[in-house]
Amino acid sequence: MALAALLAKRGVAPGRIVLVDAKTLEQASHDPRTLALSHGSRQILEQVGAWPLACTEIHQIHVSRRGQFGRSLIDRAEHHVPALGYVTRYGDIVTALGAVCQRAGIATLRPARVLGHTEHAEHVELRLTGDESDADAGGDAGRTLRAAIVVQAEGGLFDQQEGRSLRRDYGQTALIAEVRSSAPIPQRAYERFTEQGPLALLPQDDGYSLVWCARPDTARQLLALDEAAFLAALGRAFGGRLGSFTHATPRLGFPLGLNAGERASARTVAIGNAAQTLHPVAGQGLNLGLRDVSVLARLLAQGATPAMLGRFNGLRRQDRALTVRLTDGMARVFANDSPLQALLGLSLAAIDVVAPARGLLAELMLYGRR
């Protein structure tokens, strides 16, 4: 939806764009998952008119290693931005982008699935199936579409994906919930590394969105606990910086892994989670995908041709590779209890006192390698 909206904004006729989605807009709009948008992602959404969103601003990011000396604190004031990031719900982003696409007159087929495609020299044929289509699509969802360029932007969950050239099972499960504490610190996000994986608390409304990465057996035990026992376990893992944890919503868990690699042909390309499924550490997945969108929209607005897709892959290679290395390294190096963890704690302390190092880390989190 972001790509379609940005293409229309750049002058591509809405009649040349069709969105195909397996979910209805209403289903997607009620998705409660929490996402962290970077400042750079806000700028992209502003371009298409999908901002402001219902969100909570992140003014500071506190990074630490459980049981080790050293931490780093990144503050918005040092980088002259209104916020380092924004915590919002997936459904709110979908609702805003859906309204933009509707106003632009972009055709949508929902719910519909792509059964397969055949690529020819001058076009791609998509075979679709579905139960219904939006009125603006002008036809049944069960049909064949012909397109100059096909962009896949839906990747699904790691354990359901076809393997790509760079694939790694982290042996971790992400446990997600919304929690509240007795002494919250407004607008401060936390990334706390434990021996089993990172534990993130993102400020949201009057509490926090929790992403707790742990080994699958530990995650199963945490999911089985009652609320009081779970809150006590969270307090032991995180510490007392926010007082005691007082409430948690029902928890969900999903497997974590890295699955990345260029998926492109002359007339097809993958972006976002369809191109690279990342570990959630540092919250880079959607932000990396929106940077894909920004570059691809600029190129396709000049021409929906194989040459533009070739340029896209070349332009995005560095940012994608750097973000993959960053998230993969953080997910693996910090998630153990070896004696080297003391050195990693010292490295966080060093980052905190060396302004250029802290600035580079913040720049990558704010904008990526653009």
Q: Could you please describe the fold and organization of this structure?
A:
With 370 residues, the protein is an alpha+beta fold. The protein contains 11 helices and 19 strands. The strands form 5 sheets. Strands 4, 5, 12, 13, 14, 15, 16, 17 and 19 form a 9-stranded mixed sheet that branches. It has a 3-stranded antiparallel sheet with strand order 2-6-3. A hairpin with a 5-residue loop joins strand 4 (60-65) and strand 5 (71-75). Helix 1 (2-9) runs parallel beside helix 8 (285-300), helix 8 (285-300) packs antiparallel against helix 9 (306-333) and helix 10 crosses helix 11. The longest helix has 28 residues, at 306-333.
Tag the structure with descriptive keywords.
single chain, 370 residues, alpha+beta, nine-stranded mixed sheet, three-stranded antiparallel sheet, 19 strands
Write the layout of secondary structure elements.
Elements: H1 2-9, E1 18-20, H2 25-29, E2 34-38, H3 39-48, E3 56-58, E4 60-65, E5 71-75, H4 76-79, E6 85-89, H5 90-104, E7 107-109, E8 112-119, E9 124-130, E10 144-147, E11 150-152, E12 166-181, E13 188-194, E14 197-204, E15 207-214, H6 216-224, H7 227-238, E16 245-248, E17 252-260, E18 268-270, E19 276-277, H8 285-300, H9 306-333, H10 341-353, H11 355-367
Parallel strand pairs: 1-7, 4-13, 11-18
Antiparallel strand pairs: 2-6, 3-6, 4-5, 8-9, 9-10, 12-15, 12-16, 12-17, 13-14, 14-15, 17-19
Distance between the termini: 21 Å
| Sheet/helix structural class | alpha+beta
Q: Compute the average pLDDT.
A: 87
Strand content: 25-35%
Number of helices: 11
Report the C-alpha radius of gyration, rounded.
Answer: 21 Å
Low-confidence parts, pLDDT < 50 over ≥5 residues?
132-141, 345-351
Task: Please write the string of helix (H) and strand (E) elements.
Answer: HEHEHEEEHEHEEEEEEEEEHHEEEEHHHH
Shape assignment: globular
Major sheet description: 9 strands, mixed
Which percent range fits the helix content?
A: 25-40%
Number of strands: 19
